[in-house]
Every structure is written in C-alpha cells, then in structure tokens.
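Researcher: Next entry in the queue.
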Amino acid sequence: MTLLRRVIRVLSAFLLVTAVGTIGYRLLGFGYLDALYQTVTTITTVGFREVHPLGPLGQVFTMALILFGAGTVFYMFGVLLEALIEGHVHQHLERRRMNNRIERLRGHVIVCGWGRVGHSTAQYLSGLGKEIVVVDRDPQRLENLEFPYILGDVTDDAVLEAAGIRHAQALIAALDSDADNVYVTLSSRALRGDLIIIARARTESSKSKLLRAGANRAVNPQLIGGSRMAAFALQPNVAEFLDVVMHDENLEFRIEEIEIGPDSPLLDRTVADAVPRHGGGALVLALRADAGRFVANPVGDSRLRLGTVLIALGTQPQLDSIRDSTRATDGAR
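Model: Structure for this entry, 333 residues:
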C-alpha cells in the first residue's frame, strides 16, 4: 500500500472515530460542542475533565472509545510524521500533476530511453516547439528532468498508455537494446496503427527487423554520424549548409515538408501558380507523391495531388504561409 493511501485511510478512520464518539455522547445527553469536545479529549488521551458526569453506560462507551480512538490517533500521527519526513506526499502530488499534464497533451512525441540518443532527440524536438514525454526505467536518469516523464518499463503497454500514446504524433524508440526497440515498436504499432515510429538500430542487421515490426524508419546513429563526417570531409560547404538549415534555430531559412490534404486550396494546383502566391517566395526543392518517388526541382506545371509532400526551403513565415494554406477548409477556397 502506498504512503498516500495509508494517510487517506488513517485520516478517514480518525474522522469516523470522531463522528462515532460525537454521536455517542450526543445520545448520552451532551450538546453538540460538548460531545465533540469530550470525544477529542478522550481519543487523544488528554483527559482534561468530563464535561458532564458519566453513568455506567457512559463510562463503558468512553473506555471503548479510548481503546479504538487512541490507537487510531497514535497511528495517524506516525503515518503523518513519516509522510512529512520522507516527502512522499509531495512526490505523489507532483506525479499527479505531471500525469494530468501528460493526459492533456495532444500531438506530442514520446521518447523511449533517456540516453545520449534520446537526450539529443528531445532537445532538438523541444527546440522546434514540440511537447516531449520521456519514458525510462532508471530513476537516476530522470532526476531534474525538464520534460514530463514516466518512470517504468516501456515494454509494458500500460506505461505507453500512461505516456499518452493514444494522442501522440510520434514515438522515438531509443533504448539501448535492439531487442527492446523491436518489442516497443511491436507494442506501439499494435496500440496505434497510424503512429509515426522512429526506432534506433544499433546494428545494420536490426534495421530490417525493426521495419518489419512496424517502424516507419529505423536509424543507426553511428552510421549517420560516420556519413556526416565523411560528407564534411568531401563537401564541407554542402554538408554545413544542410546541417545548419536543418538544425540551427537561429538561421532565417529552413527546410520543411508540407503535405497536401483533401481540403487544401493547393490541391490540383500547379507549383507555379500555387506556391508563389501562398509561399511568398519559398523554394520547392522536391515533390514526393504517393508512390514514394522524389521529384527534385519540379517544373512549374507539376500538379499537387492528394497526399503529395512538398520539400520546401524558405523563411519560417514563408513556410508557415504554405502550411497554413494546406490546412484551410473547402469554404476558404
């Protein structure tokens, strides 16, 4: 039984004993205040005086009240002292506030595993303004964490539910073990068929397993890190430009992807007549249709079909203008 539950139960028992004592003395002819006063002084064993003389029935009732009430009071003081000393009540209230905050989140990202990869991922997403929920089984890793978190084994479906998987936009499986990442991917895909799942693969042989388990992407951080180092060695300016555009929050220009939805005014429009009007100068670097093939530097008469993804370069206001236009309703056309 948790400490807070013990506190609630012992307080309930104290109130019950006080109510029974007060009612008992009322039946013995005491007034309301006198009955309450007699009850409190009796169960706390203070025993200043008897408000009114007690007959045999009153004496028997008082002795029974002392036996049951005094034990309850002493136990209550012990539990309350333990709660104050250990601070469990405060911790529980903090946990409840955090759980309530997580329950209210919509479109957040769940980061499973608070190691170096999970930490870097969360910092980048936070810089983009995304809400983060961290899940890890090691309490030491979660000390003084700035993000909402769930302490528990992420392979447990109940822990994923507590992290708000029903309302999350994406899940990052960044656990230390490939086997755990496969298990988390399977569980997450079973709970949410439309969830975006990005899984960490420590070895190349695990990538195919993670994809079969339901991950949208399987990423090997060591391989990506090595490729970036090689790119900086061979094409430093290109690599630095892409790195800065994707990761530098202070740069004016950014690269983002924008999907054409069924209610978008850009649906069935061309790149030439739609993007300049809505984007105000944003550059469309590529298109990706449902088939998954990228079309780099699309021509001006390329049609924007349903599900087409634009890869655009521009300032944040330019990109936001295109993104806002894709979310408009048919009535706004």
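Model: DSSP finds twelve helices and ten strands in the chain.
Researcher: Noted, moving on.
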